[in-house]
C-alpha cells in the first residue's frame, strides 16, 4: 500500500469510528469547560455592573484589560486579547517550539490531566484502527485502553524526557549561539534567517520524535509489546527502515494540518460578536476547528497504523496476534 | 588642534540662542580598534552675573568605565536591564590635555596658554561616589568675569562601547552621542549644573555653534547634527566630513558602510521648508516613505501647534538592527527604529519617528534640564506625539510578536487610544513612587520612565480635556515661544499655564506634580425604586402611620415616580473635581460637578423613571484615574454575554493548547 493509499484509508478509518473523535473531543471539553467557567466568573466579576460590559460586548477594551492584567495572577493572567483570531494557535505553536509548553503552573494541571486521558484512550484507539474488523465493543475498547496504559505512560515519560533534551541540548543552545554569533550582524533579515533555521531544526527534531513515538505506540498495540523502551527502539527501527514512506506520510499529514491552520487563520472570528447568535457561531466555529485538529491527530495514528501493518505484512506472512482477554 | 574658520560667528546678530558654549572639534574614528581620538576648542562665554572660578565638564562615557560607576550601580537596581555589560561595552573618555588658550594674534599660530591638565579632578556632586568619573572639574587660574569669554583646548581619547544608552557600535555601524568632553551649565548663583551620568537621566547643556570635522573610512555614509560643509578625501583610505550647526546644545553623528540615503523636502503653509535626509538600512527600503511621512507629521503638527522648526534641515537615522541606538533625539538629527517585518499601524517606525522628531521642539528648541526635570521634554513630547499620531494615523492596533519577536500579528479590530494605550499601563506601574517634583536624577531608576513620560502625558491629556485643546495649545505655544533656546524650569511652565488659562491651576499641579497621589473615583452603589414613604405622613391635618404603597411624604398618592440613590466614592488620595452623571431610562440626565474633597457623596434624585446607570467622569477627562472600570454602574444586572463570549474564546485557546500538548504523547 503506498503512502497516498495509507493517507486516504487512514481518513476512512477515522471517519468510520466517529465515537473515537467524540471521546477525545469530550475529554478536551471535560478538561476545558470547568476551567473556562472559572475564567468566565473572573471576567464577569471584573466587568461587574460597569459600562465596560458594553465595550467588551462590542469588541475588546484594552483600557479595561490594562486594569485587569495589573491585578491578575494565576488563571486570570492567562486571559488577554491573544485569545482571539488565529493568535491562540500561533501562541501555542510558539510555546511548543520554544519548549515552554509545560512551563507555568496554571495550566499544567489541565494539560497533565488531558495527557493522562489521552494516554489512557490511545490503546483503545489504536486497537480500533489496527483491527477495524473486530467487534466494536465498548468493553474491548476499554480493555485495550487499560491493557496498554502503563506502557504508554512509560513511553510518555521517555517522550517528555526527550522533549526536555531537545530544548536543553539543542534548541536553546542553538538560539544562544545565533544570538552570540550575530552580535555584529546589522541586518535583521540575516538574524531572522538563522533563527528560522533553528526553529526549523527544532520542528524537525520534534517531528522526528513524534513520528518515532507514534510507531512505538502502534508497535505496542499491534505487536503486543510491554516494554516502552523496546517499543521506542522498534519505532526508531521502523522509521529508519521505511524512511520514505513514514516521512512521506508524515509530510502529507503535516501539509493537511497546515491547510487546516491556514483555513482557520483566515476564518477565525475576531472580537466583534455582540449577539448571542454571533457568540455561539464563533464558538461553534472554534469547536469545529478543535474537532478537525482531533480528526487530524487520529488521522496520523490511523494512517500510520495502516502503514505499519502493511509494512509488517510485506515483510512477513501475517500471523494472528493474541489480543487481551475480553470477557 | 582644531583651527578651522567659523562659517557662522558665535556673535552673529541673527543668533537664535545665547551661543555661549561653542565647540570646534576634530575627531578621528578608528573602526577597527573602536576608538575616537579628538581635539576640541571650546569658546565659552560667561553669561551669568557672577564670575566663574572653575569649569565643570561631562565625560559621559566614563559611566561605563567599570562597574563602580554610578550609572552601572544604578543600572543594577533595574531588574529589566542587564546589570553587567559585555566586555566590549566598557568604555571611557580620557582627557589627555586641557589648556586655557591665550588670544592668538594670528589664526594660524599654534595654540598657547596655561596648561591646566594637572588641575583636572573628578567630582561626584550627586552621590559622592568616589569611583565615578563622569564629571570633571578644573580650577581656573583667574575667574571668568561676567560677559567675558575664554577658549579652551582639549585632547582626548575614547574607547567606543558596544552600544550602551544608545551610543556605540555594532559591527561596522557606529552611532556616536555624548562622545566629547562637554561643559556643564554655569548658573546665576555661581555654581555649575553638571550632574553625574545616571542610568535614567539624559542631558543638559548650553546652546552654541558646533563646527565638527570627522575623519572616518572613505566611502562610508556619514550623518551628523547640522549641515555638511563638504568632504575631503585623505590618504590612507579615510575622508574628513565637516558639519556645522548653530544654536544647538549637542552634536551627534553616525556612520556605516551599509547606509542608504534618501532625501525629501517638507513643505507646509506657514512653516519653513525643511530638507529631510534619511539614512536607512537597505532592508528597510520599503519603509522610506513611512519614515518621511512620520517626520512630516511631527514637523507639521508640532510646528502648527507650538511654533515652527527653525533649522531648515533634519537628519533621520534608521539604526542598524540590534544596535540599541534607536529612539533617541539629538539636535537636527534623531534615530528612529523599525523592524524588518513592521506592519502599518503597529507603532514602528511611525511611533518612534514622530516621538524623536518631536523632541526637536521639546528638548532641542526648548532646552530644559533633563537631569532635573526630564518630564518637561519627555512628558510634553509623549503627550504631543500621541496627539500627532492620533491626528495623522488614528488609533493604534493591538499587535503581538511571535517567535522571538520576529513575526508580528496584528489584530486590527482591537485598537486603543494613542495616549491612553500604553501610557496608563506604564503609569499604573509607578503609583506611590516618587512625586514628579522630585529631581529626575533622584527618581528610583525602575520607575523613572513612568513618572517622566506617562504621568506627564496623562496629566496634560487631563488638562486638554478640562481646559479645552484651544487653551492648552495656547499654553504650550506660549511656553514654547517664551522659552525657546532657553532653559525653562517647572515653575516657568506653571506660570505660563496660569497666565494663559486665566485660572489658578495650583491645586491641579499640587495633585499631579507635587504629590505622588493616586486617583481612583468609583460608583459605590446605585438604587432606584418607586417612591414610598414608610412611617408617619400628614393626612387630613393629622400625622398618621402610612399604609398605602405609593405615597409621597405629604401623603398624596404618587404614581410612577422613582427615587434614585447613588453613592460615589473617592478611593484614592488624589483630589480633582469630577463630573457625576445619572442617566435615567427615559433619557433624562442629571449632571453634577463633585469636588471630590470628601471621600464619598450621596445623590438622591426623584424622577419619573428608574436609573439606567450612574457614572463618575463619564467623558473620561481625568486620564489619571487608575481604575476606570469602577467609574460606572448600571442599575439592572448585566447580561452574561461579554463574559461568556470571552470565556468561550479562552476555552478554544485552552483546547488548542491541549491539542498542541499531544505532540508530546
Characterize the structure shown.
The complex is a heterodimer of chains A (327) and B (665). By secondary structure, chain A is mainly alpha-helical. Chain A has one domain. Chain A contains eleven helices and no strands. Chain A has helices at residues 3-16, 18-47, 52-58, 62-70, 87-97, 108-130, 138-181, 188-222, 228-241, 243-267, 276-315. With 665 residues, chain B is α+β, with helices and mostly antiparallel strands. Chain B folds into three domains: 1-249, tricorn interacting facor f3 domain (Immunoglobulin-like, Sandwich), CATH 2.60.40; 398-514, Neutral Protease Domain 2 (Neutral Protease, domain 2, Orthogonal Bundle); 521-636. Chain B is built from ten helices and 34 strands. In chain B, the strands form nine sheets. An eight-stranded mixed beta sheet of chain B has the order 5-4-8-2-1-14-17-16, with no helix packed on it. In chain B, strand 24 (396-402) and strand 25 form a beta hairpin. In chain B, helix 3 crosses helix 4, helix 5 (418-428) crosses helix 6 and helix 7 crosses helix 8 (490-501). Chain B is elongated, with a radius of gyration of 30 Å. Chains A and B meet through helix 2, helix 3, helix 4, helix 5 and helix 6 of A and strand 24, strand 25, helix 5, strand 34 and helix 10 of B.
CATH architecture of the largest domain in chain B: Sandwich
User: How would you sum up the major sheet of chain B?
Assistant: 8 strands, mixed
Proportion of strand residues of chain A: under 5%
User: How would you describe the oligomerization state of the chains in this entry?
Assistant: heterodimer
Low-confidence stretches of chain A: 318-322
Distance between the termini of chain A: 34 Å
Strand order of the largest sheet of chain B: 5-4-8-2-1-14-17-16
The largest chain-to-chain contact, stated as pair and per-chain residue counts, equals:
A-B, 99 and 78 residues
Number of domains of chain B: 3
List segments of chain B where confidence is low: pLDDT < 50 over at least 5 consecutive residues.
1-7
Amino acid at each position: 500500500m503506498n503512502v497516498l493509499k495509507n493517507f486516504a484509508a487512514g481518513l476512512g478509518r477515522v471517519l468510520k469510528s466517529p465515537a473515537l473523535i467524540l471521546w477525545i473531543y469530550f475529554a478536551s471539553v471535560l478538561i476545558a469547560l470547568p476551567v473556562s467557567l472559572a475564567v468566565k466568573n473572573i471576567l464577569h466579576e471584573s466587568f461587574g455592573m460597569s459600562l465596560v460590559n458594553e465595550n467588551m460586548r462590542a469588541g475588546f477594551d484594552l483600557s479595561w484589560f490594562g486594569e485587569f492584567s495589573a491585578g491578575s495572577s494565576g488563571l486570570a493572567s492567562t486571559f488577554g486579547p491573544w485569545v482571539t483570531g488565529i493568535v491562540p494557535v500561533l501562541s501555542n505553536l510558539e510555546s511548543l517550539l520554544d519548549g515552554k509548553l509545560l512551563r507555568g503552573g496554571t495550566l499544567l494541571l489541565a494539560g497533565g490531566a488531558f495527557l493522562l486521558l489521552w494516554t489512557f484512550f490511545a490503546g483503545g484507539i489504536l486497537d480500533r484502527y489496527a483491527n477495524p474488523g473486530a467487534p466494536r465493543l465498548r468493553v474491548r475498547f476499554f480493555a485495550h485502553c487499560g491493557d496498554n496504559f502503563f506502557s504508554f505512560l512509560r513511553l510518555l515519560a521517555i517522550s517528555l524526557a526527550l522533549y526536555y533534551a531537545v530544548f536543553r541540548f539543542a534548541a536553546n543552545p542553538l538560539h544562544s549561539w545565533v544570538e552570540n554569533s550575530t552580535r555584529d550582524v546589522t541586518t535583521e533579515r540575516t538574524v531572522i534567517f538563522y533563527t528560522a533555521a533553528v526553529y526549523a531544526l527544532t520542528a524537525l527534531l520534534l517531528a522526528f520524535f513524534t513520528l518515532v513515538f507514534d510507531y512505538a505506540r502502534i508497535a505496542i498495540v499491534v505487536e503486543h509489546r510491554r516494554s516502552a523502551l523496546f517499543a521506542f527502539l522498534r519505532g526508531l527501527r521502523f522509521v529508519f527502515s521505511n524512511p520514505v514512506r513514514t516521512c512521506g506520510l508524515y509530510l502529507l499529514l503535516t501539509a493537511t494540518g497546515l491547510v487546516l491552520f491556514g483555513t482557520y487563520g483566515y476564518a477565525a472570528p475576531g472580537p466583534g460578536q455582540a449577539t448571542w447568535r454571533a457568540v455561539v457561531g464563533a464558538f461553534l466555529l472554534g469547536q469545529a476547528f478543535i474537532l478537525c485538529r482531533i480528526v487530524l491527530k487520529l488521522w496520523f495514528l490511523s494512517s500510520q497504523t495502516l502503514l505499519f501493518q502493511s509494512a509488517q505484512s510485506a515483510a512477513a506472512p501475517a500471523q494472528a496476534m493474541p489480543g487481551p482477554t475480553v470477557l | 588642534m582644531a583651527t578651522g574658520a567659523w562659517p557662522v560667528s558665535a556673535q552673529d546678530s541673527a543668533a537664535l540662542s545665547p551661543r555661549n558654549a561653542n565647540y570646534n572639534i576634530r575627531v578621528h574614528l578608528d573602526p577597527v580598534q573602536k576608538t575616537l581620538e579628538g581635539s576640541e576648542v571650546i569658546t565659552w562665554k560667561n553669561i551669568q552675573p557672577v564670575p566663574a572660578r572653575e569649569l565643570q565638564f561631562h565625560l559621559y562615557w566614563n559611566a561605563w568605565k567599570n562597574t563602580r560607576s554610578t550609572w552601572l550601580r544604578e543600572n543594577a537596581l533595574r531588574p529589566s536591564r542587564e546589570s553587567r555589560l559585555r566586555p566590549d561595552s566598557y568604555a571611557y573618555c580620557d582627557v589627555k590635555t586641557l589648556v586655557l588658550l591665550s588670544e592668538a594674534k594670528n589664526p594660524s599660530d599654534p595654540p598657547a596658554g596655561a596648561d591646566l591638565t594637572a588641575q583636572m579632578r573628578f567630582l561626584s556632586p550627586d552621590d559622592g561616589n568616589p569611583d565615578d568619573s563622569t564629571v570633571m572639574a578644573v580650577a581656573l587660574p583667574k575667574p571668568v568675569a561676567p560677559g567675558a569669554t575664554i577658549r579652551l583646548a582639549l585632547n582626548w581619547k575614547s574607547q567606543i562601547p558596544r552600544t550602551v544608552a544608545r551610543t556605540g557600535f555594532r559591527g561596522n555601524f557606529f552611532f556616536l552621542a555624548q562622545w566629547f568632553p562637554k561643559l556643564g551649565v554655569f548658573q546665576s548663583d555661581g555654581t555649575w549644573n553638571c550632574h553625574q551620568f545616571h542610568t535614567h537621566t539624559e542631558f543638559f547643556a548650553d546652546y552654541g555653534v558646533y563646527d565638527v570635522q570627522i575623519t572616518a573610512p572613505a566611502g562610508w555614509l556619514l550623518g551628523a547634527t547640522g549641515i555638511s560643509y563638504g568632504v575631503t578625501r585623505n590618504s590612507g583610505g579615510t575622508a574628513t566630513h565637516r558639519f556645522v550647526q548653530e544654536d544647538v546644545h549637542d552634536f551627534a553623528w553616525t556612520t556605516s558602510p551599509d547606509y542608504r540615503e534618501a532625501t525629501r523636502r517638507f513643505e507646509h503653509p506657514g512653516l519653513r521648508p525643511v530638507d529631510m535626509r534619511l539614512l536607512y538600512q537597505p532592508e528597510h527600503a520599503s519603509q522610506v516613505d513611512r519614515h518621511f511621512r512620520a517626520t512630516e507629521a511631527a514637523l507639521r503638527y508640532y510646528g502648527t501647534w507650538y511654533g515652527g522648526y527653525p533649522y531648515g534641515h533634519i537628519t533621520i537615522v534608521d539604526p542598524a538592527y540590534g544596535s540599541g541606538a534607536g529612539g533617541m533625539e539629538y539636535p537636527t538629527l534623531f534615530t528612529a527604529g523599525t523592524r524588518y517585518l513592521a506592519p502599518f499601524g503597529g507603532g514602528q517606525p511611525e511611533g518612534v519617528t514622530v516621538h524623536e522628531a518631536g523632541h526637536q521642539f521639546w528638548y532641542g528648541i526648548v532646552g530644559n534640564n533633563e537631569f532635573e526635570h526630564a518630564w518637561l521634554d519627555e512628558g510634553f513630547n509623549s503627550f504631543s506625539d500621541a496627539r500627532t499620531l492620533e491626528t495623522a494615523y488614528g488609533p493604534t492596533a493591538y499587535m503581538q510578536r511571535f517567535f522571538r519577536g520576529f513575526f508580528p500579528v496584528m489584530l486590527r479590530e482591537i485598537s486603543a487610544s494613542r495616549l491612553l494605550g500604553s501610557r496608563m499601563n506604564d503609569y499604573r506601574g509607578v503609583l506611590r513612587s516618587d512625586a514628579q517634583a522630585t529631581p529626575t536624577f533622584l527618581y528610583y531608576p525602575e520607575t523613572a520612565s513612568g513618572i517622566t513620560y506617562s504621568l506627564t502625558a496623562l496629566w496634560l491629556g487631563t488638562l486638554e480635556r478640562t481646559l479645552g485643546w484651544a487653551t492648552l495649545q495656547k499654553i504650550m505655544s506660549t511656553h514654547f515661544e517664551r522659552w525657546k533656546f532657553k532653559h525653562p524650569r517647572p515653575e516657568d511652565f506653571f506660570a505660563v499655564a496660569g497666565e494663559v488659562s486665566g485660572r489658578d491651576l495650583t491645586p491641579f499641579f499640587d495633585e499631579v506634580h507635587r504629590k505622588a497621589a493616586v486617583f481612583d473615583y468609583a460608583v459605590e452603589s446605585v438604587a432606584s425604586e418607586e417612591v414610598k414613604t414608610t412611617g408617619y405622613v400628614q393626612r387630613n391635618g393629622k400625622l398618621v402611620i402610612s399604609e398605602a404603597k405609593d405615597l409621597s411624604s405629604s401623603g398624596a398618592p404618587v404614581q410612577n415616580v422613582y427615587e434614585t440613590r447613588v453613592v460615589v466614592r473617592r478611593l484614592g488620595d488624589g483630589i480633582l473635581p469630577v463630573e457625576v452623571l445619572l442617566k435615567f431610562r427615559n433619557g433624562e440626565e442629571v449632571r453634577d460637578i463633585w469636588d471630590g474633597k470628601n471621600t464619598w457623596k450621596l445623590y438622591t434624585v426623584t424622577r419619573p423613571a428608574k436609573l439606567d446607570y450612574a457614572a463618575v467622569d463619564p467623558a473620561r477627562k481625568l486620564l489619571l484615574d487608575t481604575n476606570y472600570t469602577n467609574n460606572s454602574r448600571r442599575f439592572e444586572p448585566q447580561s452574561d454575554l461579554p463574559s461568556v463570549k470571552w470565556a468561550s474564546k479562552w476555552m478554544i485557546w485552552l483546547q488548542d493548547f491541549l491539542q498542541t500538548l499531544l505532540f508530546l504523547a
